[in-house]
């Protein structure tokens, strides 16, 4: 199998893993609080990645990376999914991250946006207004957008400080450190049913979202390059809608479909260079 074919297959796996993670997280939270699920994701996922990465690094840069790209992001993500009527819509809101990355580049570093990037930003936020609706906008939607913003902050930090690190070791370390940072949130709600179903769903989320998703992502980036892999990852929300239908029997509304399509088109346009 040539590297490009392997890379595309890996990215299809990423779409399946991260697309389904929104719905399986929703199911898992029938049995536990968002904070307990966060600990499952980082605890179990971190242990598996740690065994694969064969090492753990803890320093100031790794801790800040874990705070932004790990603990805060996943806590916000799980809370958003918990309070969402359709977790697939949450995936669209979270994937506004590239838009926030671009806006932060303009604000923090004085980068001048191109005409296409401005059009992309306008389209993305117009699509959000259509998808969530002015009157149906709820706390889950707001937290999801906040999660996208935190992810963008983490992306900037990663690019400036950790871009040359070994990715598997970095993410193994991030998961372990994130578990330690997120542990105090259990005080808010330590609820979890003491059943095999609860444990099984917690482990499934960890293995699918934290282990399988990231390992396939690394393989896709290695074989296709970061630009192609990142472009394909924008399809994760489309995959999330499919899995929400298959797993939760959630049929998106017309406005959700139209708004999500406009948002993702805006995100894609904003990443074009012209």
TrEMBL record:
Keyword field contains Transmembrane helix: yes
InterPro entries registered for this protein in UniProt: AA-Vitamin_Transporters, EamA_dom, EmrE-like
Listed transmembrane segments: 7-24, 30-50, 62-81, 87-109, 116-136, 142-158, 170-192, 198-220, 227-248
Membrane topology, as annotated: Multi-pass membrane protein
One Gene Ontology term, aspect cellular component: membrane
Pfam family, one: EamA
Ranges of residues in domain EamA: 6-131, 139-269
Annotated localization: Membrane
Keyword annotations of the record: Membrane, Transmembrane, Transmembrane helix
PANTHER family noted in UniProt: EAMA DOMAIN-CONTAINING PROTEIN, INNER MEMBRANE TRANSPORTER
Protein name per its UniProtKB record: EamA domain-containing protein
Source species of the chain: Vulcanisaeta distributa (strain DSM 14429 / JCM 11212 / NBRC 100878 / IC-017)
């Amino acid at each position: 199998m040539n590297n490009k074919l392997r890379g595309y297959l890996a990215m299809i796996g990423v779409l399946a893993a991260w697309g389904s993670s929104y719905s399986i997280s929703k199911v898992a939270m029938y049995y536990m609080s968002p904070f307990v699920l966060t600990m499952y994701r980082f605890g179990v996922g971190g242990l598996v990645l740690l065994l694969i990465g064969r090492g753990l690094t803890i320093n100031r840069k790794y801790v800040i990376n874990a705070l932004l790209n790990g603990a805060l992001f996943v806590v916000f993500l799980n809370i958003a999914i918990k309070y969402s009527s359709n977790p697939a819509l949450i995936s669209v809101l979270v994937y506004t991250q590239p838009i926030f990355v671009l806006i932060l580049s303009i604000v923090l570093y004085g980068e001048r946006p191109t005409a296409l990037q401005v059009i992309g930003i306008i389209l993305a936020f117009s699509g959000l207004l259509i998808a969530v609706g002015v009157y149906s906008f709820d706390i889950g939607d707001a937290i999801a957008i906040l999660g996208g913003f935190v992810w963008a902050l983490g992306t900037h930090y990663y690019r400036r400080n950790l871009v040359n690190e070994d990715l598997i070791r970095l993410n193994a370390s991030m998961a372990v450190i994130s578990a330690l940072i997120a542990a105090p949130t259990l005080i808010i709600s330590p609820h979890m049913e003491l059943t095999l179903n609860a444990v099984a769903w917690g482990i499934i989320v960890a293995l699918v979202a934290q282990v399988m998703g990231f390992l396939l992502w690394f393989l896709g980036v290695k074989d296709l390059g970061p630009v192609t892999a990142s472009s394909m990852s924008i399809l994760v929300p489309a995959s999330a809608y499919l899995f929400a239908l298959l797993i939760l029997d959630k049929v998106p509304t017309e406005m959700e479909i139209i708004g999500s399509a406009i948002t993702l088109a805006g995100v894609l346009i904003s990443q074009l260079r012209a």
